[in-house]
Amino acid sequence: MKASPTELRPGPWVRESEYRFVHRSGVVIERRGFPHRPGWFLVPVESGQPTLRFAPTPQGCDDALRAYSGRIAVTDRLTRIVTA
Q: Model pTM?
């Protein structure tokens, strides 16, 4: 059975904790618990770029990794855009 991205990290990603992954480019994927808005957030390096929110589940983390790598399309149905 193939491992999911949360189980097997690609080389450019460093797992800082169970809820925070940092790409060598500086992009961060982390789980946050904003009031009434928990989820996995893909935080870009550039401050002018939107932060993307994904479901607060292991699948949400997988989706954030796939979105960063361009393997899935980011749509309003999949994720909600949140200001940084």
A: 0.71
Strand partners, 21: 15, 29
pLDDT in tens, the chain (84 residues): 444 555 545 578 899 999 999 998 899 999 998 788 899 999 988 888 888 899 999 999 999 988 888 765 555 444 444 433
- What is the tally of structural domains in the chain? 1
Instruction: Indicate whether 7 belongs to any domain.
Output: no
User: Which range marks the domain in which residue 64 is found?
Assistant: 13-82
Q: How far apart are CA 45 and CA 15, in angstroms?
A: 17
Q: Tokens for 43? A: 């935080």
